[in-house]
Every structure is written in structure tokens, then in C-alpha cells.
Design goal:
The strands form two sheets. This protein has a nine-stranded mixed β-sheet, sandwiched between helices. Strands 10-12-11 form a three-stranded antiparallel β-sheet. It is globular, with a radius of gyration of 22 Å. The two termini are 40 Å apart. The protein has three domains: 1-74; 108-290, Rossmann fold; 297-363, Winged helix-like DNA-binding domain superfamily/Winged helix DNA-binding domain (Arc Repressor Mutant, subunit A), CATH 1.10.10. Helix content is 44%, strand content 13%. The chain is an alpha/beta fold.
């Protein structure tokens, strides 16, 4: 995408009062930001755009747009990912009100990998912090990208856990990427930018406002296969993320806690409403396994036979035509627990292996 195309995308999202739903309508009618601006007042009226919203399209704030471009150009790891970009997260694109563009800093390849969101209370208990770290680390080892919102408490612990396991993590901002909120997570944000990804729908210079964080939450849930709530009070913002996840057709998971811990009440409420009670990472993987192949193209006639990774081939050979439990597969493949878990996730994504009830695995051959 050249700078002129990027200027029109930026001018569109900076137009006052024009949000994702309106932009989606305009793009459907006029196909591109350049087409939207060329349509003029007559074209805009034809699709029902109110006169009060047209001023930002008649006179775009090109000075602010150029500032955005300079911010993007100042660092090679900064990117603008639009709805028309193949890097745009496939699951997020399917959601209602998907953001028309994402400001990114870091590794945008992570946007195409399977993600699991971990969210929870800012004022989390020590046990909640440890649970978030441990689950994030194990999910990262299993090959999932851990996504959260960089908030204090559970969010920060989830990012740290993934990084400490040498895994990948995505932090979604409720501000522009030039403003780290909360400020005490500045070092964590820099660490994520180095090996993971920071992203937001808000242009540089956008401050933190209360209404921005539910919008951030819909991106967290929208990009993810599911949302794990570690700790949450009855009125926690994490419950908003869980509700959005449910509305978006995502899986919702919750870790139970003590009845005497007020930070567990939100999780217990979610479980009563149908969220899956989680004790181990396997509880999550078992639930999301049927959804993993949505993120990859159709498998070859026998994806297992064509596996290029030696660990994947070892798993396929160990499975043969049998249905095996994890422990038996571990014994036959002679792999480590981490290596076997990662190989199974890769093969699941490729349509080569299916996870069955009871944590058993079966090799698939398509003809």
C-alpha cells in the first residue's frame, strides 16, 4: 500500500463522528477510501450519510494525517494494517463493527496465528497473578499467541507469562501506541514490541478515555478463539470482554476460586452462565480444537503424510491408525511434553490430527 492510499485510510478514520459501522457502509458502496472521498456529498447522501458527518470528508485533517504518517515511518516495525490487508486477523474481520484499520508495532505475522485471550481483575490476588502467568506460559508453549490488554493485574501477568516462556503475546491498547497506559507498564510494552505485537485502532496521540476500553475489549475477544477469565469481581470490565466474546461466537473459560475471594465471584457468575470451568490448559485446548482449522486453508489430501517437521512426522507415525491418549502418544513418540503439545497443535491446524473426547487423538487422512 503506497503512502497516498494510507493517507486516505488515515483521513477516513480521523473524520469526526464516523465510526467502524459507517466506514463499513461507505466501503461497501465505494470500495476504497479513495472512492469514498471521490464520491462527494451526492454519493454520501445516496447511502444515507447525515449532513453533519460529511464535513470531515469534505475537509479532511491532512495535517494530522501527515503526523500519523511520520509516526509510522519513524520505525520500520510500525505498520498500518487495513481491512483489505491479508495480515488483518481473519476472526476479527468477521465481527460486527470490526475496526477498519489497526496501528501496529512489532511482529504482524502474529495476527495470522491462533490466539487465546487472558483477562481479569486489575486488583488481582497473588494466586490470580500466578494462575495468569502459569496459564499464559503453558498456552504459549503449546503454540498459541496470548492476547490481553496490558492492564495492571491479570493482563500484565498474562503478557509476562507468555514472554517468560519464550512465546508470543499481543497487547491491545485503548490509546494511541505512542501512549502506554498504565504508565508503569512502559517497560513491559517495550518488551512486547521487541518480540510480540502492540496494536490499537486509535491513531497516535489518542488519550485513554473510559469509552475506549470496551472498544479495545471487542478487539481482544474478536481476534481470539476464546477468552479465559482468571479473576474478576462482579462488576469487572473483564465480564464485558467475556460478554463480547460470547456475542462474537467465541469460547468463554473461567477459573474458579474460593467462595471467600471477592475476585472469584465474576468467574463463578460466568460459569453459572455457561462458561467452561477450567483447571488445566488441556480443558481449553479440548474446547477450541474444533475451531483451529478455521484459521488455515484446507489441508492437502493427506496432510499428515506431508508433514515437514520431524516432530510432526514422529507424532503421525506414533498415531498410525489408532486413537491414542496423550500419555501413550508421549511414550510412543519419545518427544518431550512441550514438543508433543506443540506438534499436536500444528497438526490440528493443518487438519492432520483431530482431538477427540477424553483428550485422545486420531490421525486424519482425507481422500
Amino acid at each position: 500500500m503506497d503512502d497516498e492510499a494510507r493517507r486516505h485510510w488515515l483521513a477516513l478514520v480521523r473524520a469526526p463522528g464516523i465510526g467502524p459501522a459507517t466506514i463499513a457502509t461507505l466501503l461497501q458502496a465505494f470500495h476504497s477510501p479513495e472512492g469514498i472521498f471521490r464520491a462527494g456529498p451526492g454519493g454520501w447522501r445516496s447511502v444515507g450519510l447525515e449532513a453533519r458527518l460529511q464535513s470531515g470528508l469534505v475537509q479532511p485533517d491532512w495535517a494530522r494525517v501527515d503526523e500519523d504518517l511520520r509516526w509510522l515511518q519513524a520505525d520500520a516495525r510500525r505498520h498500518l494494517v487495513t481491512l483489505s490487508d491479508e495480515r488483518y486477523p481473519a476472526l476479527l474481520r468477521e465481527t460486527t463493527g470490526a475496526p477498519p484499520l489497526l496501528f501496529c508495532q512489532g511482529d504482524t505475522d502474529l495476527l495470522t496465528l491462533p490466539q487465546l485471550a487472558i483477562v481479569g481483575a486489575r486488583s488481582a490476588s497473588p494466586q490470580g497473578i500466578e494462575n495468569a502467568r502459569a496459564f499464559a506460559a503453558e498456552l504459549a508453549r503449546r503454540g498459541l499467541v496470548v492476547t490481553s490488554g496490558l492492564a495492571l493485574g491479570i493482563d500484565g501477568a498474562a503478557h509476562q507469562g507468555a514472554l517468560d516462556a519464550d512465546g508470543y503475546t499481543v497487547a491491545v491498547f485503548g490509546t494511541g501506541l505512542d501512549r502506554v497506559y498504565p504508565a508503569r507498564h512502559r517497560e513491559l510494552a517495550h518488551r512486547i514490541a521487541e518480540s510480540g505485537l502492540l496494536l490499537t485502532e486509535f491513531p497516535p496521540g489518542t488519550p485513554g478515555k473510559a469509552e475506549h476500553f470496551p472498544r479495545r475489549n471487542r478487539i481482544i475477544s474478536g481476534m481470539s478463539l476464546g477468552v479465559l477469565v482468571v479473576e474478576a469481581a462482579q462488576d469487572s470490565g473483564s465480564l464485558i470482554t467475556a460478554r463480547l466474546a460470547s456475542e462474537q461466537g467465541r469460547e468463554v473459560f473461567a477459573i474458579p476460586g474460593s467462595i471467600h475471594n471477592p475476585m472469584a465471584r465474576g468467574c463463578h457468575r460466568l460459569i453459572r452462565q455457561g462458561a467452561k470451568l477450567v483447571e488445566t490448559v488441556d480443558d481449553i485446548l479440548e474446547e477450541i480444537a474444533p475451531h483451529l482449522r478455521r484459521l488455515r486453508p484446507a489441508a492437502s489430501p493427506d496432510a499428515a503424510a506431508s508433514a515437514s517437521n520431524p516432530e510432526d512426522r514422529a507424532v503421525c507415525a506414533a498415531l498410525g491408525d489408532e486413537v491414542l491418549a496423550f500419555d501413550e502418544l508421549l511414550r510412543r513418540s519419545a518427544l518431550s511434553v512441550d514438543a508433543l503439545s506443540a506438534a499436536l497443535l500444528r497438526l490440528e491446524l493443518e487438519g492432520a490430527v483431530a482431538t477427540l473426547a477424553g483428550g485422545r487423538y486420531q490421525r486424519l487422512t482425507r481422500g
